[in-house]
Write a structure and sequence with these properties.
Helices cover 27% and strands 28% of the residues. The protein contains 16 helices and 31 strands. The strands form eight sheets. Strands 14-13-10-11-12-15-22-20 form an eight-stranded antiparallel sheet, sandwiched between helices. Helix 4 packs antiparallel against helix 5, helix 7 packs across helix 8 and helix 12 packs antiparallel against helix 13. The longest helix is centred in the middle third of the chain and has 17 residues. The chain is globular and about 70 Å long. The structure holds adenosine-5'-diphosphate (2 copies) and magnesium ion. The site of magnesium ion has 2 residues, from loops.
């Protein structure tokens, strides 16, 4: 049995793994960046190793540093959590070479399933339907365009190496194809170092249903039922639940059977998830069509809902399987009981286009309520930095029925208070109050279509939110409902008021002169790209600077037709909030 586990992660998942280790009598070793020297996971582990500066590329994503930390601390296994190196075959391989157990599947399976193109092949060979699509042999822009034409519009251009909703672009009109191919490729190359693209038919208003599977080294491959994850924003899950309110028993049997077939034919081991989209635009019922999307070769963010309805500890089972033990259950012994729902609490501002928030949690209180589990990675006083993703906690409610679980979750979210930075807590409560959500009618596009309206409908002093969670990072909220045209950096128009708002030091960042417009950074960020130079003419809506913060791309667009007067930032530079980026006239 494994004796000492190094956890190559941070935040709530690192704490979750430390808890499982402690129960099993396994020693835990945390790794941390300089930014996380006093983070909860660093303090909670039995020992902690500093592995480098704040940027993930120099710490949590550095294979040599993580392996060195494991060797020096004499860990016999590494749990990668999710994100970071969890789906990096090179990392699994490096563990093997260092004689360290990787808590996950064999490196070769990560490689195969990490290519969505190869994974589609495996699913097809296992007799499981994949979304109708095309893999262009010719990967040039022209080749991908031909694939889009063959698939027909609307289509989805996707990165073979994609993940976290990145490297994906919808095309509805022929005129959008060229731009979408380039955007998908650029995003995929930046995020995954691999710009290989394929094209799928866009399934309109689908449901995202995924199946938790588990396999051991003794021939057992089983499923732990499904999770419904259709409440998504920009292809990122926001609320997840089990069972899916959309599945009939017959459809559930088909979907879970398909998942086991894919895992078996992939030669899978340990915990994994097979994602499907279910097309309920027809009659639905037992015969509704569903398609394999991809396999995630790791534990998922939303694994707690499966743990709640099955009563099983997935991290414990991961450690057992990695130690070479058989799975501690049989398919027949596993059942789905009651209902569990998880909401992801993000440091982001729904009223300003969901822009991620960084800053200190000056106040932080988690509710303690029956049937409510909270997996979090922060504490009062913690700093949410721009270096990592903005997930701060997951709130999971369990009850005997779906309506009761929803009510329980809403009550828990209302009682959750966060001060110092804005969160999506009030927005989550609004979603739970929707009739469409209560009826289980939300498809994967719902929040992208309705989310902005839903967010701006949030009264600033909403009775459903804790006022503390609405405390802005700097300066007061503009009075009245926030106008999304002015405040939505995602959808393009940067905050004009930013240029005359007091800066972080409290003095006036200067006013723009007549006919001048100063575009500033809405938050601390890295400058990814500056596609314009002084003298260029830009059209309203054109991207003048592409920023990145908290793993998200933030395009800063021209608010009107203009001429670029000055460019005040460089590609690769880390800029502070309110820093001037570009001056337009
Ligand atoms: P899962 O499929 O396990 O639910 P996701 O696909 O949502 O997980 O996220 C996969 C990885 O992306 C996770 O490791 C998580 O850290 C990261 N991630 C989660 N939320 C965001 C976000 N808003 N932006 C970028 N990355 C994210
Ligand atoms: P990622 O690796 O980024 O998680 P996925 O392939 O799992 O990428 O897709 C993420 C989300 O995008 C899905 O949950 C679904 O909402 C949407 N999606 C993916 N493919 C399609 C498709 N062909 N049609 C409609 N929606 C899709
Ligand atoms: Mg996915």
């Amino acid at each position: 049995m494994i004796r000492r586990v190094l956890i190559a992660n941070r935040g709530e998942i690192a704490l979750r793994i430390i808890r499982a280790c402690r129960e099993l009598g396994i020693e835990s070793v945390a790794v941390h960046s300089d930014a996380d020297a006093r983070a909860p996971h660093t303090l909670a582990a039995d020992r902690a190793v500093a592995i480098g500066p704040a940027p993930a590329s120099e710490s949590y994503l550095s294979i040599p540093r993580v392996i060195e930390a494991a060797t020096s601390s004499e860990a016999d296994a590494i749990h990668p959590g999710y994100g970071f190196l969890s789906e990096n075959a090179g990392f699994a391989e490096a563990c093997a070479q260092a004689g360290i157990i990787f808590v996950g599947p064999p490196a070769s399976v990560i490689t195969t399933m990490g290519s969505k193109i190869a994974a589609r092949g495996i699913a097809g060979a296992a007799g499981v339907p994949v979304v109708p699509g095309q893999t262009p042999g010719d990967q040039s822009d022209a080749g991908v365009t031909v694939a889009v034409e063959r698939v027909g519009l609307p289509a989805l251009i996707k990165a073979s190496a994609g993940g976290g909703g990145r490297g994906m672009r919808v095309v509805r009109e022929a005129g959008e194809v060229a731009g979408a191919v380039q955007a998908a490729r650029r995003e995929a190359t930046a995020a995954f170092g691999d710009g290989t693209l394929y094209v799928e038919r866009l399934i309109e208003t689908p449901h995202h249903v995924e199946v938790q599977i588990f396999a051991d080294g003794h021939g057992a491959v089983m499923h732990l039922f499904e999770r419904e994850c259709s409440v998504q924003r920009r292809h990122q899950k926001v609320i997840e639940e089990s069972p899916s309110p959309m599945l009939t028993p017959g459809l559930r049997a088909r979907v879970t059977g398909a998942a086991v077939a894919v895992a078996r034919s992939a030669g899978y081991r340990n915990a994994g998830t097979i994602e499907f989209i279910v097309d309920l635009s027809g009659k639905g019922g037992d015969a509704a069509p569903f398609y394999f999307l991809e396999m995630n070769t790791r534990l998922q963010v939303e694994h707690p809902v499966t743990e709640q309805v099955t009563g099983l500890d997935l991290v414990r089972a991961q450690l057992l399987v990695a130690s070479g033990e058989p799975l501690p259950w049989t398919q027949a012994s596993v059942c789905q009981r009651g209902h569990a729902i998880e909401a992801r609490v993000y440091a982001e501002d729904p009223a300003r286009g969901f822009i991620p928030q960084a800053g200190r949690l000056v106040q932080y209180h988690e509710p303690h309520l029956p049937g409510v589990r909270i997996d979090s990675g922060v504490a009062e006083g913690s700093e949410v930095t721009v270096y990592y993703d903005p997930l701060i906690a997951k709130v999971i409610a369990t009850a005997e029925s779906r309506p009761l679980a929803i009510g329980r979750l809403a009550a828990a979210l209302r009682a959750f208070s966060v001060g110092g930075i804005r969160t999506n807590l009030p927005f989550l409560v609004r979603i739970l109050e929707l009739d469409a959500f209560r009826d289980g009618r939300i498809d994967t596009g719902f929040l992208d279509r309705e989310g902005a309206a839903l967010a701006t409908s949030l009264p600033v002093e909403s009775p459903i939110s804790n006022p503390q969670s609405l405390t802005p990072l700097r300066g007061p909220l503009p009075p009245g409902p926030v106008n999304p045209q002015l405040m939505d950096p995602w959808n393009g128009v940067p905050s004009r008021s930013a240029s005359i708002r007091p800066g972080p030091t409290g003095r006036r960042a200067r006013s723009a002169g007549v006919g001048q417009l100063v575009l500033t950074a809405p938050m601390p960020a890295t400058v990814l790209k500056v596609p314009v130079k002084p003298g260029d003419t830009v059209k309203k809506g054109e991207v003048v600077v592409l920023l990145e913060a908290m793993k998200m791309e933030l395009p800063i667009r021209a608010p009107s037709d203009a001429i670029v007067a000055a460019v005040v930032c460089r590609e690769g530079e880390l800029v502070q909030a309110d820093a001037t980026l570009v001056e337009l006239k």
